[in-house]
Hints:
Layout: H1 3-6, E1 10-18, E2 28-31, E3 37-39, E4 45-51, E5 55-60, E6 64-67, E7 70-73, E8 82-94, E9 104-107, E10 114-115, E11 121-127, E12 131-136, E13 141-143, E14 147-149, E15 158-161
Parallel strand pairs: 1-8, 8-15
Antiparallel strand pairs: 1-4, 2-3, 2-5, 5-7, 6-8, 8-11, 9-10, 9-12, 12-14, 13-15
Amino acid sequence: TTSADFGCSYTVSGRVTDGAGRGVRYATLTFSNSSYSATADENGYWIRPGLSGSVVVSASKDGWTFLPVSRTVDGPASNVDFDGTYRVGGLVSDADGTPVGSVRLDLSGGHSSAYTGSDGVWTKQGLSGDVTVTPNLANWTFSPSSRTVSGPYDQVNFTRTYSVSGRVTDQQGRGMPYVQIK
């Protein structure tokens, strides 16, 4: 028999974590037969008393995707856990703000690369833990050279830069010292 059989209320609890096992703080837990929700603490733990009957529990937080999508409980439980991944994105542009397409963004942690579209925008879902994002385009450098994220963020932006170097010579091919180039 379950608590629903006797009209009793029960308590459920669990933890919301990222794919690296770290708590996802302030995730929201909703319950199908209640207007009340619960909020995960700074370590991802949450608790909700006063439930009755069969209840579908779901976790949510902007920029995150959780698995399972929902869990059904029919009585007391202390392991109603959710595991999440996050999404990041940004813009790659020239110093004047012109978008740069076809830039490959390499992501650490075994994640596959992302690419900018013709609008310079890129996104990547399914990330967990700390991820370093490094832009790559042949013969170009970027500022910053890489960025590390540990949760959803849509402003992981990079600016394409370049440097110019050369040698100033006279008509005989001899180097000319102290020439200022403007």
